[in-house]
Specification:
globular, nine-stranded antiparallel β-sheet, 9 strands, 0% helix, mainly beta, 121 residues
Length: 121
């Protein structure tokens, strides 16, 4: 009997502010990929968060994700965050070798941690 493989890795090495990308995570090849982001909010905070994937680490595309923990789990390509918290974004389709977090329209939000959690057989 084989078990389910789990892997979790922190891919941010320092805080990310402004309209920037996080460093990229390198996947270990599991099926389900979830990005976990930890933000700290400042005064009048808001940020648009997009999860991006790439097969070569050069050409990036914005992925469709489902944000866990909200009343209506809807698929989206961007989520607006305004509070200090951990947020979980489940990648809806496919598998990506490289994953990163893209921040835009950022006002006083700091990405402190980015994690890639993978599970599969």
């Amino acid at each position: 009997m084989t078990g389910v493989q789990y892997d979790i890795q922190k891919f941010t090495t320092a805080a990310v502010t402004g309209n920037n990308n996080s460093p990229a995570a390198l996947s270990v090849g599991c099926g389900k990929q979830t990005v976990i982001a930890n933000f700290t909010a400042g005064a009048t905070p808001t940020v648009a968060v997009a999860i991006q994937g790439s097969f070569d680490g050069v050409a990036w595309q914005t992925l469709v994700v489902t944000k866990e923990g909200v009343a209506a789990e809807t698929k989206a390509i961007s989520n607006t965050e305004t509070t200090t918290a951990y947020f979980y974004y489940v990648i809806s389709k496919g598998w990506w070798k490289y994953i990163r977090i893209n921040l835009s329209a950022n006002t006083n939000m700091t990405l402190n941690e980015g994690w890639l959690m993978e599970q599969g057989t």
